[in-house]
Amino acid sequence: QVQLVQSGAEVKKPGASVNISCKASGYTFSDYFIHWVRQAPGQGLEWMGWINPDTGITKYAEKFQGRVSMTRDTSISTAHMALSRLRSDDTAVYYCAKDRVYSLDLWGQGTLVTVSS
Amino acid sequence: NFMLTQPHSVSESPGKTVTIACTRSSGRIASNYVQWYQQRPGSAPTIVIYEDNQRPSGVPDRFSGSIDSSSNSASLTISGLKTEDEADYYCQSYDSSWVFGGGTKLTVL
């Protein structure tokens, strides 16, 4: 079926990096942008950026410029999001989501990243 | 960039109708489509309205969306409230970047 399956929970120390994967199935991966959205505990949704799986072109939210990198591997229909120089306030659930054109119609299950010393 | 402002919480009784507003701080609300997402506790968001007023298949027609250029806002209306509608609701739009509203907690009591 159509789904996005993300990698498992991560625990990182401040200053480290995290890499989360998002595997698509049930549709043509290259046809739809993938967005990354995070949600800190008890907080709202925060948009981080998108990647065009066909071209690899990315757009990042200004807040994350220089710390985030979104890539894709079309051979395995997987998108990746790496966030570096982690801080405690990066503790959040990170979601990937498929863009049906200006709306996110399919979400991954979420990946909890905990940043703690 | 602009902001989308939502009420923190709303509550209403089962069977009633509730409307959640989403006000755009700058730029015209009609310039870019508005979407609405429902998020139940412990789950990923799901889309309930796209392109201002379109319902994805599987979303009950109790859910409707609209925009009001005079108040520069979008609204999500849920009629015939059910306890299962209790969730957080987020509006979303875009221009050069994507923006989510802060979310509204709907309590059905």
Tell me briefly what this model is.
By secondary structure, chain A is an all-beta fold. Chain A is 0% helix and 51% strand. By secondary structure, chain B is mainly β.
How would you portray this structure in words?
- The complex is a heterodimer of chains A (117) and B (109).
- By secondary structure, chain A is mainly β.
- In chain A, 0% of the residues lie in helices and 51% in strands.
- Chain A contains no helices and eleven strands.
- In chain A, strand 5 (45-51) and strand 6 (58-60) form a beta hairpin.
- Chain A is globular, with a radius of gyration of 13 Å.
- Chain B is mainly beta and 109 residues long.
- Chain B has strands spanning 4-5, 9-12, 18-24, 35-39, 46-49, 63-68, 73-78, 87-94, 98-100, 104-108.
- In chain B, strands 2, 4, 5, 8, 9 and 10 form a six-stranded mixed sheet that branches.
- In chain B, strand 6 (63-68) and strand 7 form a beta hairpin.
- Chain B starts with a strand and ends with a strand.
- The model of chain B has no long low-confidence stretch (mean pLDDT 97).
- The chains are: A mainly beta (117), B mainly beta (109).
- At the A-B interface, strand 5 and strand 10 of A face strand 4, strand 8 and strand 9 of B.
